[in-house]
Amino acid sequence: MINIGVVGCGYWGPKHIRVCHELRDVTLTSVCDIDEQRLQPVQNQYPAVQATTDYKEFLNSNLDAIIIATPVNTHHDLAKRALLNNKHVLIEKPMTATSQEALELIELADKKNLVLMAGHTYEYHPAVDFLRELVNNGDLGDIYSIDAARLNLGLFRTDVNVLWDLAPHDISIILSILKENPIAVSARGTHHIDPNTYDIAYLEIMFPSGAMGHVHVSWLHPRKIRQTTIVGSKKMAVYDDVSETEKIHIYDKGVATPKPYNGTNNGGANGKFSAWPPNYRYGDVVIPFVSNAEPLKLECNHFINCISEGKKPRSDGWVGLKVTSILEASEKSLANGGQREKLDLGAIAIL
Ligand SMILES: NC(=O)c1ccc[n+]([C@@H]2O[C@H](COP(=O)([O-])OP(=O)(O)OC[C@H]3O[C@@H](n4cnc5c(N)ncnc54)[C@H](O)[C@@H]3O)[C@@H](O)[C@H]2O)c1
Questions:
Q1: CA 45 to centroid of ligand 1, rounded, Å
Q2: Cys-Cys link to 101, which of 34, 50, 96, 157 (CB 3.0-4.6 A)?
Q3: Which residues contact residue 53 at a Cβ distance below 8 angstroms, ignoring those fewer than 6 apart?
Q4: What does the alpha-carbon distance between residue 33 and residue 175 come to, in Å, rounded to a whole number?
Q5: Site to substitute for ligand 1 among 6, 7, 9, 12, most atoms within 8 A of C-beta
C-alpha cells in the first residue's frame, strides 16, 4: 500500500484527490493547501484524510509520495522539499517555471533514487496512445506536420500566460508522437484582457526530420476546441478530444509526390515535374475504437506502478524538462515578435 498526499486543492487538485481515493493499492493520507477554505470541501468529502495548511506538517505525515497541483511558480520549492524528505513526486504540468529548476529536481530525485514524474495527462490518454502507435507503425507514412488547437473562452489565469497554461498539453502530445527533439521554436501572441498576459498564442516547433509542429492556444475563443491533426505522406489523422465517441478519424487521403522532369515530356508545371498536377488520393475514413478510460487515472496509476516497481515514468523529469525548455524558448520568441529561437535538447534522450 502506498500512502499518498496531494498539495493544492484548487481546481485540479481535487481531481487528483478523487482519483487517489479510487485507486487500488493507494491510501490517500493527507492533503495540503495554504488556503483553509480550499481544504473544507475535501475534509467534508473525505473525513478520514488529514488536512493542513502547513506544508512541513504535511510532509511529516505518513507519506510515501505526493502530487503537486499548485501554481507553477511554487512547483520547484514544494518538489525540492518533498524529495529532500524522501517522497516520490508527481508534479502537475508544466513541471517547473525554468529549465534550471527542472534540472535541479532531476538530479535530486536521481541522487535519492526517487520517482519524479511530470503530470502530462494527455501522454496517458488512450487516444494519444492510439496515435503514437499509428505513427510508430508507419501507418501514416512520413510525418509532415502535427497541428494542435486548444481553444475556449477562459479560464483566465494570472500566474501564467495562455502558452504556459495550455500549450504543455500539446507540446507533450507532439513530442510523444514524433519521438524527435525539436531544434527551434517561434511564437507569436497577443493580449486583450490583461495587458501583461498573452491570451492568444501561436507556436511553431521545428524538428530535424522537417516535420513541423504547430500549436494554437487561446482563452478567447467562442467554441471549446481540442484538436490535433497529423498529416503524413500516406494517411492523415484527426484527434478531436471534445467528441465523446469518435475521438479519432483516420483519412486515407494524400497527394502522390510528382516525379522530377525526365526529359521525355513537356516538363509539367514550370518544367520541374514529369507530370502535373500531382495525383490526389481520396479513400476511406476510419473511426477506430478508443477506450474511454480516464487519462488522469491512468497517469496516477502509472505513477504508483513506477514507485512499486522502481521504474522510470513515461513522462519522467527529462520529459518535463523538455516541455519547460520549449516553453522558455517560446517565451523569448514571444517577447521578440516571433523570432526563431534555437533549442539544444540534443543531450536529452528521445522518449
Ligand atoms: N493536467 C491537467 O489537465 C491540468 C488541468 C488543470 C490544471 N493543471 C495544473 O495544475 C496546477 C494547479 O492548477 P489549478 O488550476 O488547480 O490552480 P488553482 O489556482 O485553481 O489551485 C491552486 C491551489 O494551490 C494552492 N496553493 C498555492 N500555493 C500553495 C503552496 N505554496 N502550498 C500549498 N498550496 C498552495 C492555492 O491556494 C490553490 O487552492 C497547475 O500546475 C496547472 O497547470 C493541470
A1: 19
A2: 96
A3: 32, 33, 34, 35, 36, 39
A4: 32
A5: 12
Q: Which H or E run includes 27?
A: strand 26-32
- Which residue is associated with the grid cell 511553431? 204
CA of 283 to the centre of ligand 1 (A): 45
Q: What is the rounded average pLDDT of the residues 311-324?
A: 97
pLDDT of residue 323: 98
The single-letter DSSP state of residue 271 is: G
Confidence of residue 259 (pLDDT cuts 50, 70, 90): confident
Output the average pLDDT for the chain.
94
N-terminal to C-terminal alpha carbon distance within the chain: 29
Q: What number is the average pLDDT over the span 37-63?
A: 96
Average pLDDT over residues 125-138: 98
C-beta of residue 108 within 8 angstroms of C-beta of residue 226 = no
Tell me the mean pLDDT in the region 193-214: 96
| Beta-bridge mates of residue 30 | 5, 50
At residue 266, the pLDDT reads: 57
pTM for the predicted model, two decimal places: 0.95
Q: How far apart are CA 144 and CA 261, in angstroms?
A: 24
CA angle 323/324/325 to nearest 5° reads 90
- Which ligand 1 atom is the nearest neighbour of the CA of 9? 39
Q: Give me the domains of the chain, ranges plus CATH numbers.
A: 2-120+296-324 (3.40.50.720), 123-287+335-342 (3.30.360.10)
